[in-house]
Amino acid sequence: MVPLEELYQYAPLKRVTADNGKRFYVAPDGNKLSSVTTILGATADKTFLEAWQKRIGHAKANAIRNEAAGLGTLMHEHLESWLLGRERPKGTAPIRILAQQMSDTIIARGLPRINKLWGIEAPLYYPGLYAGTSDMIGEWDGEPAIMDFKNTRKMKKRDWIEDYFIQTVAYGMAHDIVYGTEIRQGVILMVDRECKYQEFIIKGDEYQGYCRKWADRLERFFFPPAK
User: Fold this and answer.
1) Which residues are CB-contacts of 20 (< 8 A; sequence separation ≥ 6)?
2) What's the CATH number for 14-222?
3) Residues 207, 212, 217, CA angle at the centre, nearest 5°?
4) 3 state SS of 36
C-alpha cells in the first residue's frame, strides 16, 4: 500500500445527462463541462476503428468493447482497493480471476515506483473547458506525475497510444491551473491478457508537445471545421 497524502482537496464533480443524451461534469461554478474522453473521442481519427468494425462486424466489435470495459473496471477496482488498503474484489469467474492476475502484475511491477500518492480516482477540471477523473496523481520516481492504468488484449506500441498520453497531459494541465502545481510527467501502466507489463512515460519536451496536441484537439472540439 502506498500512503495517500491528502495535499489537495479533490471535490467531487456531479455528472449530468442533457436532454440530447450527452454527459457532462458540473464544475464548482455550475458550468457543464465535457469530459476529456468525450473530447478525445469526438476529435479522433476513426479510420482504423471503422475498418476494424467493418471487418469483424458491429455485434462482435461491441461484444469485445463491452468485455474489455468490464475487465478494465474490475482491474481498477482491484488496484484502487489495494492502494487504499481495502478488501479486494473476489470471485471465481474467469474474468474476475484475470482481473486479479492483471492487477497483481501492476502492483508488483509498477506501484513500487510511486513515492507519494496525492489522489486516487481524483476528479479534475479546467475552468470553462473540460473535466475528468484521473486514476492516480502523485510522484513517480520522485517527480510529480499523472498516472493511468490501461488493460489491453495485446501489448501496444508506443506510437499507437498517443491519446493515452494526451489524456494524462489534459489532467496535468487541469491540476496545474486549479491547484498551482507544475506537473510535467505522464505515466501509463499497461498490462495485457498474458500479464505482460510495460510502462510508457512522457516528460520534458515530449510532455510539452502533447500539451500542444491537446490544445489542438480542444480547438477542433469547440470550433470544428466547416464541412
Assistant:
1) none
2) 3.90.320
3) 120
4) helix
Taking the C-alpha atoms of residue 151 and residue 106, their distance in angstroms, rounded to an integer, is 10
Q: What is the pLDDT along the chain (227 residues), one digit of tens a residue?
A: 677 888 899 989 999 987 777 889 999 999 999 999 999 999 998 676 666 577 777 676 676 666 777 888 999 999 999 998 899 999 999 999 999 999 999 999 999 999 999 999 999 999 999 999 999 999 999 999 999 999 999 999 999 999 999 999 999 999 999 999 999 999 999 999 999 999 999 999 999 999 999 999 999 999 988 76
How far is the C-alpha of 80 from the C-alpha of 134, rounded, in Å?
Answer: 12
Phi and psi dihedrals of 81, rounded to 5? -65, -40
Spell out a b/e string for 28-56, using b for 16 or more CB atoms within 10 Å of the CB, else e: eeeeebbbbebbbeebeeeeeeeeebeee
Grid coordinates representing 122?
A: 481524483
